[in-house]
Amino acid sequence: MSIDLVLMLSLAVGGGLLAHAVRLPPMVGFLAAGFALAAMGVDGTPALDAVADVGVMLLLFAIGLKLDVRVLGRREVLGVSLVHALLSTVLALTVLAAAGAVGVGLLAGAERTDLVLVAVALSFSSTVVAVKLLEEQNATRSLHGRTTIGILVVQDLVAVVLMAAVGGEAPHWWAPALLLLVPASWPARRLLTRLEHGELLALVGVTLAVVPGYALFDAAGLEGDVGALAIGLLLASSPRAEELAKSIFSVKELLLVAFFLSVGLHGAPDPSSIVLALALVALVPLKTVLYAVLLRASGFRMRTATRSALSLASLSEFALIVVVAGVGAANLEPDWLVVISTAVAISFVVTTVASAAVDRVSSEVSGRVPDPVRLHPEERPVDLRHADALVLGMGRLGRAASRRLVDAYGLRVTGVDSDATRVDDLRAEGLHVVEGDATDPLFWARVRDEGTVRLVVLAMPFHGSNLASLEQLQRSGFAGSVTAVTRYDEEIHELVERAAVVGLYDAAGAELADRAVRTAGPGLS
Fold first, then answer.
1. CB 317 within 8 A of CB 53
2. pTM of the model
3. Which residue of 90, 337, 344, 389 has the lowest C-beta tally within 10 Å?
4. Residue that finishes a domain, picked among 317, 337, 368
């Protein structure tokens, strides 16, 4: 084992632990470790770059699995993406021109076309950082989470077009044949439904992301990561899509460590590069405010708009990719790569630190800026004034609990689920279900009730989601009965003081015995 690899692993672990100790996201520590390695003269390796590429590819694949493609055409996604790209490019050009006027570093003699290319690259937001922040907040299925991911997808597609233009290489003549992946996704979805639970499902999913996704798109002259995203989108309608996304979660998280290390390893900046990078980081608050303003104009409450804007604040890893393409095509000086990588890394730190105060910042902004008069449909009040019981999470477990509460106890039950398709299906079955993310404080801010809800069932598949929903219930002042479902014994102590706890397998065992007796008939003694 090489000494460089030992140093990378040691500093990555040390940086992650240090960040955790001061209550920062571990990615901040990984970035710091990358800069420390660069300062020590350690160079990146092809193996590290390959692992980083796989991590980003799996991240985009997982995004596709969770995304409804219909989101991309909405005003708050497509419209905000395009308008923000135009305005933020103008802002970036202004900052670059101002820095060039005082003779800062590379800008002193930069060509106008170079500045335009850099400005467009700086208009993108980081997919890696935004999605990780949303996952840490359990907000990927919330309104602001889905909107954020949709904006990122649009930006990624624009970045692909830009890289093709910069590199001077158009997609190959046969690239339109990739549209055949749409009908080909049907047997792939059927294959996923036939697989057993476990490692084979994850292996098949990753293979689909790599082969018809990354490799095929790359061979066609398109960005391979976008190919993985496209395959995820095509598989998103499969009943196994969510399970597949969960199965690759841990692997993706581990591989992304290499990505954050590789950002820092692009090189240690000199003083002039640091000054220019800091000037570019000044775009972060400007971009954030611009996102918030545009989302508010789309009908978002300021609390929701601020949360989405903070997720999108950082500069993008795609800026690095675009600059690499520009350097390779001799359109940019090589020193731009160090400057942009430094600016991107600093913006990652700024965004992740700011995200720790997302609740306070969004509350303060919403208190100062009024909400729009015409609210987005998913921002309108949620009426619970005629409900006796609330079931949070309407999967198989929540659906069964809702029916039992209605049929056996005559209660008026309202279910809550973040999956719009599932909500529509359950409404068609006659259940009263509202769309919303129960882990999101923004959902509870929209709730209107008169104290009629007497009991709440936490039936979401993730323990963390149930715990977060319980915290939101307590913050809202709910004083009724709460029952939560747990899968593992170690989860019980986190819930037992605040809710009645039912073990999933205990409840299943009791129901199994009840059905066995009923099936055997009244003669069973």
1. no
2. 0.71
3. 90
4. 368
